[in-house]
Amino acid sequence: MATFGSLSDRLTQTFSALRTKGKLSPADVDKTVREIRRALLDADVALTVVKDFTATVRERALGDEVSRALNPAQQVVQIVNEELVTILGGQQRRLEFAKNPPTVIMLAGLQGAGKTTLAGKLAKWLKAQGHTPLLVAADLQRPNAVTQLQVVGEQAGAAVFAPEPGNGVGDPVRVAKDAIVHARSRQHDVVIVDTAGRLGVDAELMKQAAGIRTAVDPDEVLFVIDAMIGQDAVSTALAFQEGVDFTGVVLSKLDGDARGGAALSVASVTGRPIMFASTGEGLDDFEPFHPDRMASRILD
Ligand code: GDP
């Protein structure tokens, strides 16, 4: 994955230097931890996350599990792997489906984060599993957004609910509510609500998103974050957590060559799991997120 390429290279270098050693001295551990710390910071992982991470790795690396290990260096790599899985959210978290359909999934995030594209990706993925998703155009800020969702819906082979001219135009809460009624009458078992984003976090946008959340009581609120956004990832995520209390994170644009570490901090800082990863513009460039697989890729 291009995004974590340089972090991955740096960690690999650190570990290969370690592997030439038999027993590890406390000085070896400290040097290794310092290098890991620098690699994570250079990859834009948030400072608080780096501090906790390196403190835990150091404590474990100086402990019994390493001194008793047949291959101490390998044991340190194993510890780093386990702790990476932890900051990435631990266990994989799957979508929660409602007992009484439709399951409502709301998408939130900044403009350009990849929400509309994600709506299409999710719809296609859900359809392949036998679901009958309905896409809802509740992004009424951008003139193109409704058309863009219609295009994506067509590509995914999913129905799109958009406001009729003159009927609720400009009122995304009303559109979202009407869409749920429509979904029930047409046997759609999943409703995916695309919401408006702005270039920066702003109070009005957050109020609107919160209004939609209250009106449709979603089973999942997915916060979509562009892996390229760098250090702003953490503050943006915290603002959306406060504003819409999302249930899961979607990392998008992991195919880019950004350093990616900020996006890695989001699960740890918000305590919400990363549920999906988007890796391109095409509707198939998308996969459920597995913390353990991602950690292995980074340490590969
Ligand atoms: P929205 O404003 O949040 O709805 O964002 P869009 O879905 O319109 O996406 C903004 C731009 O990013 C579009 O040009 C998408 O094609 C592109 N995009 C979305 N997801 C990805 C991704 O995972 N990788 C790449 N490279 N581009 C993406």
Automatic annotation (TrEMBL):
Annotated positions binding GTP: 109-116, 194-198, 252-255
EC number(s) on file: 3.6.5.4
GO MF: 7S RNA binding; GTP binding; GTPase activity
Reaction equation(s) it catalyzes: GTP + H2O = GDP + phosphate + H(+)
A cellular-component GO term for this protein: signal recognition particle
Protein keywords: Cytoplasm, GTP-binding, Hydrolase, Nucleotide-binding, Ribonucleoprotein, RNA-binding, Signal recognition particle
Stretches assigned to coiled coil: none
EC supergroup of this enzyme: hydrolase
Record's subcellular location: Cytoplasm
Main location (coarse class): cytoplasm
One record GO biological process: SRP-dependent cotranslational protein targeting to membrane
SRP54-type proteins GTP-binding domain segment(s): 273-286
Domain remark from Swiss-Prot or TrEMBL: Composed of three domains: the N-terminal N domain, which is responsible for interactions with the ribosome, the central G domain, which binds GTP, and the C-terminal M domain, which binds the RNA and the signal sequence of the RNC.
Family designation: Belongs to the GTP-binding SRP family. SRP54 subfamily.
Role, per record: Involved in targeting and insertion of nascent membrane proteins into the cytoplasmic membrane. Binds to the hydrophobic signal sequence of the ribosome-nascent chain (RNC) as it emerges from the ribosomes. The SRP-RNC complex is then targeted to the cytoplasmic membrane where it interacts with the SRP receptor FtsY.
Quaternary assembly: Part of the signal recognition particle protein translocation system, which is composed of SRP and FtsY.
The name this protein goes by in its record: Signal recognition particle protein
Native organism: Microcella daejeonensis
Parent-protein residues present: 1 to 300 of 530
